[in-house]
Amino acid sequence: MRPVRLELNGFAGFRAPTVVDFTDADYFALVGPTGSGKSTVLDALTFALYGSAYRWGRSNAIAYALAPTSNRCTVSLTFDVASQRYQVAREVRRVGQQIQQKTVSLVKFADPTAVVTDADGPQPDVLAGEIKELNAAIEQLLGLSFDDFCQCVVLPQGDFARFLSANARDRQQILLKLLGAAHYEGIGKRAGAQAAEAAKEIEVLTDQLSRHADATPQAEADAQARLSALGQLAATVDQLVPRVAEAHSRASDAHARVATLRTELARLTPLRAPDGIGELQRRAVEAQTAAHTARDAADAAAQTLADATKAAQSGPQRAVLNIARDRYTEKAGLVGRRDAVIAAAQRARQELAQSEERLRALADAVTEARRTAEETRGRRDRVQQAYAALQRRQQMLAPVQAPHGASDLTSRAAALARQADAAATQLAAARDRHNQAASALTAAGDGSRLTEAREVLDQLLDVTRSLTDATSELDDAVEAVAQADSAVTGAQVRLDAATAALEEARTLAGAAQLRPQLQVGHACPVCEQSVTILPPPLSDPALAAAQAARDAAVREHRDLLSQHQAATTTVAAKQRAADTLTQRRTLLDERLGTLLPDRPADTERDCDADRAHLDERAAARDQLVAAEQQARAAAQEAEAAHTSATAAVATLQREIDRTRSDLHTQLGALAELDPPAVDTHDVTSAWSDLEAWAQAQRSTVENDLSAAQAEAATCHQAHQDATATLEAAEQAHATAHSVHTTAVQQRAAADHAQSTLTDRLSELQTLLDQAPPTDALPGLLEECDRLEAAVETATAEASQTREALKAAEAEQQQWQARTATAWSELTAARDAVAALKPPSLDTDDLAAAWASLAAWATRAADDRQADTLRAQADAHTAHSEAEQLLGQLQGLLRDHDLDPQDLGDGPGRAAQAPRVVAVAAERARGQVEMIQRSLADAAAIQDKIDSARTQQQVAAELARLMRSNKFPQWLADSALDTLVAGASQSLRRLSGDRFDLSHHKGEFYVIDHSDADSQRSVRTLSGGETFQASLSLALALSDQLAGMGGATKLESIFLDEGFGTLDPDSLEMVADTLENLAQGERMVGVITHVTGLAERVPVRFQVHRDPHTSVVTREGT
């Protein structure tokens, strides 16, 4: 993965839009003071890919992405993988109190050189558009998880510096952490916790098992017997209950008949005819006759009122006559006001014409005054603009002055150029001499191979001695196995004999127990044949002694077998150790042959000859190393001198460029003044010419300014006078316009009054054309009075007759209501005994109907009295039978331990017996099921106890294996071998073939080829050398993690490491190391605030912070 372009907006300290362009930046540095935001750039790069950053502590942390005062941030990264270009973008927003990712995207460009999407070109392929898809897509594309990326690309350099000097225990913890193997410690802890939980579970389950102690097979059998007895009781109860119910039913029927007869007798006894029925009929007939007479008189009075009303409606109407009289009066008043209204309208027209003439004259005066004011204002503005232009020209010419020190720039530049050329010639010669010495040293071979050959030779001696000891131990172990095998064979023979003797003793013991039970004529329980003669009794077969002998033989066989297995295991372990040592000896011998290709053939096992050969080659190489170091020192001195001279030339050239840039800037500022043409190559002459021209221009401008100022004052006074005249004319015109408006309003009011009067007179004339004449109005009003009086008299008479009719009808209704009430009482009395079938009644004669009903009631009451006595005797017989059967049922319940009180106290309590028996049976059935469930639960709990015990044993064993001195130690040791091998290759390249890395017995060493391949502890390294060693370890782990994760080729690496504590020599070595690293195929990025280191990096991204935001500026190519 190689980044191309990083865009930030609102991310952490970068509140403003920021672009970091990595194009052609194969080796760059992020430079700036502490806190400026250098590390934030790497945080943004990591966040764009994985949604978090290494420094934030968690892979799902996003809160640090948003600046404290921002509500939204966006991060976009364009990067290359292999030959394809991709772009990933994320957006974070503040929603209430929450900070959330809102939109994400991952696209693949069709054009591998594109950095933005072209709307007219081919569109990119969208690989992910959802948050849950993006991280998986990035991991699949890069082949690295978030943690792996932070260790492979953004290296945790500080951990490796500690890794070099840590003790064995701390180094194991650091290595496991960097390898991501810290979860093994968690596995061990979880296994220990699981073992403890399993032990606790066993304790809990054992307590639960004790709660089922009462659940036994005998308890189950007793419960089943109780359930069977209750079943038989239920059948008996089912036969008795219907008989009890039938007896109770007969008693209830008899009681019901008694109650019914008594009820009927109670209804018949009070049935008698009421008093005064005849008088009631006579008064009702008289009231009906009086009501008919009053109704005829009311109808005659109503007809008289209708005739009078019709006559009044057809005669003259009073309201019409009153309206006509009012209209005649209004017309006379309007005719009297007509002449005065017409005169007022004529006066208003004359005043309006006069005001219009004066208003036109004043408007012409205002127009003339406004024209004069505009002319004077235009002259004043033109003069002021000319004066301002002269002032601006004077201000532009004032700052024209040559910068200090511009006169001797050319001579100084020539002198420094000569010094730089001389330094370059000396540097080329020194480099040639160093290259010759380095070539000779390279031809002599790699010094690390000699160092490694010494180590391999030492290891070969150790392995050979260890193999000799292991072979001897293996022979002893094989002999011990043979002896144990012989002992096991003998123990097996003795065990077989003891087992046969025990079986024979058991057979004889069984026969001895059966013989006393045999009887002549019965079958033998063993052979099933008839016994004819009884055999004699057998003596005691000594079964216990045979059993004891066999148990002893079993224990002996088991002990010897365990010894045999232990001896066999020992042989296998010794054999594996011997095979491992043999294989390692072969590998070391082959490696020594590879490292020493000119090794004599007859020294295959002569280690002294090999060591002498190594010493001879090392001495020759030491001489070449010394020559190369001397040439390198001379080349470095020449390079320092050349660098100093080149820097001085560059510094002076920057000064010339600044002076020329100032000249161009000044000419650009004076462009509108048309300055003279100057030669920008000779900055001194150009500045002199420009200063002379500016001085002449300043004198001319000063003279022009005085004349322009006097003319401006004259124009300003003329404009003030014209403005005063215009204001006076406009005031007079406004007054006249107000008078004219008043005249218009007065004329409109007068015209409206005249029009209104004329229209009303016309309207009244039209209305009065249909009205009676004025002199006929009094006679018509008198006729209205006569007709209205006749209507009032007829109305009073009609009201009196209606009141008399109401009184007669009320009297009739009262007697009719009393008669109806009497008939209702008769009907109600008969309806009350309707179920007893009373006789039909005469509806025309109320008294006769009552007499017939009363006679029937007397006869029916006598019959009901006799039937009541017979029904009471039947009820007593049935009740006695029911009580006898109920006593038998209660006795059965007591016999089965059931309480008869559960039946209740009511007459229907026998019907509750099946329910009581069913409840008892259900309880017995529940007891059976409870015992069965308890037995099943006890078996299940026992299974759980066995399973938990197995789990506890496995977890305890796993916790033991996960201790730091078991599996994690083996993993760390294996990883360390691979890590050191890869780190040694990187260290050799980064140190210019000076160092190799090795480790022995928990300590790290470097092989210094510049010091006769001496072996030095890493604790003795300088700051720069420590950086080289730790960076080599970091690169090795990066390659290992990337290989394990299936990552694509790693094309970039970023070092977020502080270098401020290093001394100048160590800092120089760090700079050389980084330059060597940058010569590879990776993009190398460094974060530093050390100026000396940053100046040696070809591309620098300056990061600084203003009060609002962090800013990134690219420098270099």
From TrEMBL:
It comes from the Bacteria. Pfam families: AAA_23, SbcC_Walker_B. GO terms for molecular function: ATP hydrolysis activity; exonuclease activity. The keyword Coiled coil applies. Keywords: Coiled coil, Exonuclease, Hydrolase, Nuclease. GO terms for biological process: double-strand break repair. Residues 5-210 form the Rad50/SbcC-type AAA domain. The keyword Coiled coil applies. Residues 338-433, 617-655, 777-818 form a coiled coil. Belongs to the SMC family. SbcC subfamily. Heterodimer of SbcC and SbcD. This is Nuclease SbcCD subunit C.
